Amino acid sequence: MYITIGNSDDKLTQSQWADYQCKLLEIVDEFQKQIHGIWYSAPRSPYQNMCVCVEVDDTDGLVKALRGLCRDFNQDSIALYHGSVTLVGDADDNLPGENS
Q1: Side-chain half-sphere of 96: how many Cα atoms within 13 Å?
Q2: Is 85 exposed, middle or buried (0-12, 13-18, 19+ CB in 10 A)?
Q3: What is the Cα gyration radius of the chain?
Q4: 53 exposed, middle or buried (CB, 10 Å; 0-12, 13-18, 19+)?
Q5: Lowest model confidence (mean pLDDT) among 50-54, 73-77, 86-90
Q6: Are the C-beta atoms of 78 and 3 separated by less than 8 Å?
Q7: Which of 5, 17, 40, 95 has the fewest other C-beta atoms within 10 Å?
Q8: What's 91's DSSP letter?
Q9: List of residues 6+ apart from 24 with CB closer than 8 A
Q10: Tens digits of residue pLDDT in 63-79
């Protein structure tokens, strides 16, 4: 699952943006089974974004906590992607979308 937050609209001050990121990580720590990575927008980018890739068991609880985070920081939304994984190896496997 990927969770993405941003502040490219500059609704949050720098201090609030830092707090928002910390609160997201607290929520992730509470629900995570395993964290695969945490990424931030490039320092030279005009955008402020953060993305976390995490495995969780309690998706409903996580979503409820993210809704509260949106409310607490006056955000319109948090992007959440929950999909399936395709493992690619060196074998000649037929992957979704490939022609045989």
Answers
A1: 4
A2: exposed
A3: 16
A4: middle
A5: 86-90
A6: yes
A7: 95
A8: S
A9: 3, 5, 50, 52, 69
A10: 999 999 999 999 999 99
